[in-house]
Design brief:
about 325 residues, alpha/beta, Rossmann fold, 5-stranded parallel sheet
Length: about 325
């Protein structure tokens, strides 16, 4: 009995310690709450969506969150969706974002944007990691995500941000203390709405590119994990490449994804190959060379919506 009481006290102490440190970490971590790139709100807002209310969920990097406006898609198809993505997000983080989403949502279809097969290293840069990891609630899944994404020796800075931001007290604002973003919905449901127009002078010709370059082993491992999870959970997995003026070298990597999808019996569509059908204009439809602006999104979403409905009806 004495051993049991001591063990119970230790467990209670550890739980209290983690809860306190987690709360302080939430206050101290750097946040992005303003402007188009308010990613703290966009990721945090997902948690406030009603349980089992989403038909479709989108995952990936900025190529995903700049390409799909869930409001526009819902008007066209009746499907409610959310873009659960952060910038330059490696596929292994996207995988854990999907696992996080499945805690509260049961989407019929999951769409993964695969631009990040261009990732060349097993670990992304610190800014990319913090923007993806910080807004996720502390859980076993978050710890597993950190172990997959962060080098040994740095992981504690991502599991409990207090170790990273302990000297940030003088910078704190009202938003840091009120934590209102933990209770708010993102009206754009993860979409990043970009108004700026950049004139793109030219794009690579991709039609004749048939060579294949092999992505990082780790990227292919996590594509396999996506497929396995789709079969376990019963949702349809669709892989896409959003319009992004891809280079020839990138197209060779996307060709590897196409071959993978064919082997697995799942859909992959590279919308860089649909510029004419989409009617995309290099002079008006891009925020920068890589991302659609609102003009481009207004052309892409209706086309994608028709594609999605056809895929979901099969």
């Amino acid at each position: 009995m004495l051993i049991f009481k001591r063990t119970l006290r230790v467990i209670i102490f550890i739980i209290c310690f983690v809860l306190i440190f987690s709360g302080v970490s939430n206050i101290l971590e750097r946040k992005s709450l303003e402007g188009a790139w308010n990613m703290t709100l966009k990721v945090g807002g997902f948690y406030n969506e009603p349980v089992d209310s989403l038909d479709v969920m989108f995952f990936g990097s900025s190529h995903m969150y700049c390409s799909i406006d869930p409001r526009m898609l819902e008007e066209q198809t009746g499907l409610k969706s959310y873009v659960f993505a952060t910038q330059q997000q490696p596929l292994w983080i996207s995988y854990h974002y999907l696992k996080e989403a499945l805690k509260t949502q049961s989407p019929e279809t999951v769409v993964l944007e695969v631009h990040m097969v261009v990732q060349e290293e097993d670990y992304a840069d610190e800014g990319t990691l913090h923007s993806a990891v910080n807004p996720i609630k502390l859980s076993r899944n978050k710890v597993e995500m950190v172990y997959a994404a962060v080098p040994h020796g740095e992981r504690r800075n991502y599991i409990l941000d207090i170790f990273k931001y302990h000297d940030r007290w003088e910078e704190l604002t009202r938003d840091d203390y009120t934590l209102e973003h933990f209770e708010a919905l993102d009206p754009l449901r993860g979409f990043v709405q970009l108004e700026t127009v950049t004139v793109i002078e030219s794009r690579d010709e991709l039609e004749a590119v048939v060579d294949v370059s092999e992505p990082l082993d780790k990227s292919m491992e996590y594509l396999e994990k996506f497929v396995e999870l789709s079969r376990e959970e019963g949702f349809e997995l669709i892989l896409i490449k959003a319009p992004s003026n891809a280079t020839v070298d990138e197209k060779k990597l996307y060709n590897a994804v196409e071959a993978f999808a064919l082997d697995e019996g799942i859909t992959f569509e590279d919308f860089n190959m649909h510029f004419d059908q989409l009617g995309l204009d290099l002079a008006t439809d891009f925020y920068d060379r890589r991302h659609l602006n609102v003009n481009g999104v207004a052309k892409f979403v209706p086309y994608f919506g028709a594609f999605l409905m056809e895929e979901m009806s099969e």
